[in-house]
Structures are given as C-alpha cells and as structure tokens.
Design a protein that fits this description.
By secondary structure, the protein is an alpha+beta fold. It contains 3 helices and 5 strands; from the N terminus they run ββββαβαα. The protein has a 5-stranded mixed β-sheet.
Length: 115
C-alpha cells in the first residue's frame, strides 16, 4: 500500500488517513480548544486492524503537529498514542503547557458525549 493521503475533516473533528481506493484506514479524533490559547486536542488515534503496523498512526501524529504549526496552534494531547509519539519526536512536537492540558481535560469533562 502506498502512503495514505492525510485529510483534515475539521467539521467532524477528524484527521483521516485515506487509502488510494478512498477507504479511511486510520484517524485521529480531535477538537479545537480556544482558551487559554488555541490548541488542537487529539483524544483518540484509531487504525483499522487490517492496516496496523504500517506507520499510519505515526503519519497521522506527524501531520497533526504539522497542521498545528501551520495554524500557529499548540497541541494538547489527551491521546496516549500521540503523547508517546511526541515524546519520541521532540524535534517535531513541542511540549504542552500543563495549564493547557488542564483546560483540555476540563473541556472534555464538560462535553461527555463527544468522545
């Protein structure tokens, strides 16, 4: 399989990896936090079982940080995979301020049916 195309479906809150045949083979579910500063907040990373082990989750995480950079936004990861990816790639992922993580957790608690 060639590298999937990564698409941002902002309205649905998903960064999607799409195969050449148009199948969504992986995604990061996220929301945008506006306060105390703008941040993309990944909550879950999901790769379809038939496509695991192909680097799709890493490609999604890399694009999430690139997208945040292009938008001059922080990333406040609540997703265990994205958090571990960021620790392994400090040159591509900047650390998150604790106040921003707290605000992201508060937002998630205030929207219990969202994720």
């Amino acid at each position: 399989m060639s590298d999937p195309e990564i698409r941002d479906d902002r309205a649905a809150g998903r960064l999607e990896a799409v195969s050449a045949g148009g199948e969504v083979v992986g995604r990061i579910e996220y929301f945008v936090l506006d306060s105390p500063e703008r941040a993309l907040v990944p909550v879950h990373t999901i790769v379809e079982p038939a496509h695991e082990g192909k680097g799709i989750a890493g490609s999604l995480a890399r694009e999430l940080y690139a997208l945040a950079g292009r938008e001059h936004s922080a990333v406040a990861s609540l997703c265990p995979y994205v958090t571990k990816w960021a620790e392994r790639h400090p040159g591509e992922a900047t650390p998150t301020d604790q106040d921003l993580l707290t605000a992201a957790k508060d937002w998630l608690r205030a929207h219990p049916g969202r994720y």
